[in-house]
Amino acid sequence: MDLPQIGYFIVLSRVLNFTHAARECKITQPALSRAIKRLEWELGGDLLLRERSLTQLTEFGRAMLPLLEQVQAAADVARDEARQLQTQERAPLRLGLSPWLAFPLIGTVLREVIASVRSTEFSVSVEAEPVMRERMLRGDLDVLVGLRADTLPERFNQWQLFSTGAAVFLPRDHLLAADELIHGSRLAESVLLGASEPEALPERILSQIVRRLGRRPSTPHRASNWETSLQLVRSGLGLGLGLSCWPTPPELVARGLADRLPDYEVVVETIAGRPQSRAVSTFVKLARASAWMNPANVP
User: Fold this and answer.
1) Which of 78, 117, 183, 264 is 20 to 30 Å from the Cα of 44, by its Cα?
2) Residue range 164-190, pLDDT digits in tens
3) H or E element at residue 49
4) Distance of CA 83 to the CA centre of its chain
5) What φ, ψ does residue 72 adopt, rounded to 5°?
6) Which pLDDT belongs to residue 195?
7) Which of residues 70 and 226 earns the better pLDDT score?
């Protein structure tokens, strides 16, 4: 069966007159009759009782009508979706964000994208970066904002947005809060918060601290993202390791490390050669053009 046959039958079921239905469908009456007979043959039963002065649906026709209406409705939706994609009326932006980068970091850029491309349909996923890169390769995500990886899969484009230093997050009344910069040796006896993933940001900072101390401080508690880490700090369960660009709650302070650690590069990534919606291309363009030089200005 084809969609025109279904459409003819739906019109005919409403007007119950071949002449009127043919006129509404803008075809000849013989052509309409042939189309209906073909549909009946394909479905395996009579859809209509044909009488001189009255046309009625058979019991089989009444049973098939809602099913065929669903087929037509689904086809209409698919047609509309295809038209919107072709004309870029819809502009999907499926963004992946590192669990160790605060969402406010990209808030300003997203607002600019939505203002510029009003048809933007935005969604965000927060997962471990290797997982999100796999999702990008499968086509489930369009763009990733994360921390530069030591190795990157083939087919990825990557642009640096800014660099930011490591920081220790601790309660305002903590003994070490009086130090503007904290020496790694002063962390030796502290309880530090680790991360659930071995390659996650706090573990990377910890590895640098361990190199200088020669041993690993106590890390009995672990977090899976920056927000949970700060919640654990607020609960008095340890000192958090993160980035100086994280938003700091009023009851906490962020302190840099006196033992100079390498900065961490925040990057934006896409799949090379893959078509992009207007929202994706605009996001990448605005992110690369933003004034990231002073992460303290991040809203």
Assistant:
1) 78
2) 999 999 999 999 999 999 988 888 889
3) strand 48-50
4) 23
5) -65, -40
6) 94
7) 226
Question: In whole angstroms, what is the distance from residue 20 CA to residue 15 CA?
Answer: 7
Q: Are the C-beta atoms of 35 and 42 separated by less than 8 Å?
A: no
Neighbour-count burial of 136, counting CB atoms closer than 10 A to its CB (0-12 exposed, 13-18 middle, 19+ buried):
buried
d(Cα 133, Cα 219) in Å, to the nearest integer? 28
What structural domains and CATH numbers belong to the chain? 3-87 (1.10.10.10), 91-163+264-297 (3.40.190.10), 166-257 (3.40.190.10)
User: Listing from the earlier edge strand, what are the strands of the sheet with 240-243?
Assistant: 181-182, 252-257, 166-171, 240-243
Distances 252 to 31, 106, 219, 220, 235 between C-alpha atoms, Å: 78, 22, 19, 21, 11
Q: Say which residues have a Cβ less than 8 Å from residue 147's Cβ, sequence separation at least 6.
A: 98, 100, 101, 129, 201, 264, 265, 266, 267
pLDDT confidence band for 88 (50 / 70 / 90): low
CA-CA distance, 169 to 175, in Å (whole number)? 12
Query: CA–CA separation, 10 vs 173, rounded Å?
Result: 74
- Please tell me the predicted confidence (pLDDT) of residue 293: 46
The pLDDT of residue 54 is above 70:
yes
Q: What is the pLDDT of residues 191-239, one digit of tens each?
A: 999 999 988 999 999 998 888 888 888 999 999 999 999 999 999 999 9
- In angstroms, rounded to a whole number, what is the distance separating the alpha carbons of residues 292 and 276? 24
